[in-house]
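The instructor's notes for this session suggest beginning with a concrete chain rather than abstract definitions. Hand out the sequence below and ask the class to guess, before any prediction is shown, which regions might be ordered.
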Amino acid sequence: MKKMEITLKDLEDNIRTLPENFYEEVNDFIDFLKTKHFKSKSNHIPEWQKEETGRRAEYLRENPQSFVSESEMDDYLNNLESGD
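After discussion, reveal the predicted structure:
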């Protein structure tokens, strides 16, 4: 038995038969499939991003006093939220 070719319209029609609370799960599964099957493409880091990361790392080495730890940032954000 030959498998029928599925079109985007077929997928859309099939999704429309689901209750709306399943949409997020379907979307998550699509993201999973993309990650699983396109790993090599998703691991590509643009050159500009590598350069920017290097620039920021160098800045932190030269200016360690500018570094804010995660716990310090959490405290700061919590104080903002509480109005302190």
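Then share the key points. The chain has a mean pLDDT of 88. Residues 60 and 66 are 7 Å apart (CA to CA).
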